[in-house]
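hey so i finally got around to running both of the ones u sent me last week. sorry it took forever, my laptop kept dying halfway thru and i had to restart like 3 times lol. anyway pasting them below in the order u listed, first the sequence line then the structure token line for each. didnt double check formatting much so if smth looks off just lmk and ill redo it

first one:
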Amino acid sequence: MQTNRNLLLSDHAKADSDPVLEILTADVAKCGHAATVGPVDLEALFYLQSRGLEYRTALQLLVAGFFQSAIADIPFEDVHEKLAAVVEAKLATAELRGEG
């Protein structure tokens, strides 16, 4: 199964998903692909804000969670913390949609 998830974080962001499977055997039981593209879920953002989080904190939490799901799939444990720290550092200084 090939999955491609894209999170659009600005009004200028764009993602073109073109999942392609190359199958090099005639012995395939099942295969598939999926792709999603979209902005942060506004209902999830509203929910977090209704629980007392400020807009920026709520958005950072949702974006960090999006990246965490991808980081968790990496088979090298020592890479998880390093990548999570990079994402956290970028989110701390990023200009986020809806701010200002």
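and the second one:
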Amino acid sequence: MDTLSYKTVSANRDTVKKEWVLVDATDQILGRLTSVVAKILRGKHKPNFTPHVDCGDNVIVINAEKIKLTGKKFEDKVYISHTGYPGGQRTINVNAQMAKNPAVVVEKAVKGMLPKNRLGRELFRNLHVFVGSEHPHKAQKPKKINLNSIR
């Protein structure tokens, strides 16, 4: 039983091929968009996926201000933060956050879908969200993908 077909090949940092992917968020529903982006960041769409290795791609999300939310989430969904001081709990709803910085809404949604450990923090650094259709990563020649093609 020394044949190669019986050996499991695990990816490591040296054997992973990372690509740059461009995703257009225009008229996309936030949850469906971010679940696919998290899958691409994690590398679960690749055949050599290894759970403890960063084998995902770098993802650029453009037009973050044009996302959609279903129902009354624009008024009802609330982001909570705390300053660390007594009485320092701060809340902001999605509508106000979209007016302030729409990229944060997409970033928070994707970050919540990644692992909560060192690997998740490393994967989150591969996400680049921009308001508008311009981005500074043209030199990487990102490949534009259709979100419906990723399963």
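quick thing i noticed on the 2nd:
The radius of gyration is 18 Å.
anyway thats it, ttyl
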